[in-house]
Write a structure and sequence with these properties.
By secondary structure, the protein is α/β, with parallel strands linked by helices. 38% of the residues lie in helices and 17% in strands. The protein has helices at residues 9-19, 32-41, 66-74, 78-81, 95-104, 122-127, 144-152, 163-166, and strands at 5-6, 24-25, 52-57, 84-89, 111-115, 131-134, 157-159. The chain is globular and about 55 Å long. The chain starts with a strand and ends with a helix.
Length: 168
């Protein structure tokens, strides 16, 4: 390779520290017009009960914060929880743990595990969200999913406080 590119200064620092390479920081390579068109072409269903939709999309691994999200959702007062639904797209080694948390807290009617969401359906999944939540605790070089959620038309996008997400 002659050149290396990354999406944030934290990613450039990691490349230097881990591999000893210099990398240029480039803009996010996301075509927002294509994502918006895909979201419109393949919409995800609205909640039949008309509840506010919170969406999470990502691998079910520790650093993505999926467990913390379910635990936080469980802390909502019952009256508030009755008005929202949490849709979780993704799969990974924490699937069984998240399923157990859902059962433990009696969230079966409020939290749905949607499984793997392909690139074809991802924009529609994100566009259906009133609040797209990505509580990653670290290890994010930028968080392209944040840009994708905004481009898809999610109502609001919330990212975890980690260097990759907070870099501007």
């Amino acid at each position: 390779f002659d050149e290396f590119a990354v999406l944030s200064a934290p990613a450039a620092a990691f490349a230097k520290r881990a591999f000893g390479i210099e990398a240029a920081v480039i803009p996010v390579p996301v075509c927002i017009d294509d994502i918006a068109a895909q979201a419109a072409a393949k919409p995800w269903p609205v909640d039949p009960a008309g509840r506010t939709i919170i969406a999470f999309l990502g691998r079910l691994v520790e650093r993505k914060g999926a467990v913390e999200l379910v635990e936080a959702f469980a802390l909502l007062p019952p009256r508030a929880r009755a008005r929202v639904v949490l849709r979780m797209g993704g799969r990974g080694p924490l699937s069984a743990r998240i399923e157990a948390l859902i059962a433990q807290h009696g969230l079966e009617g409020s939290v749905s595990l949607e499984g793997f969401i392909s690139d074809e359906y991802k924009p529609g999944f994100l566009a259906a969200a009133d609040l797209a939540v990505f509580p990653a605790t670290g290890g994010e070089s930028f968080g392209i999913v944040l840009t994708e959620a905004m481009a898809a038309g999610a109502g609001a996008v919330l990212g975890g406080d980690n260097p990759g997400y907070s870099w501007t």
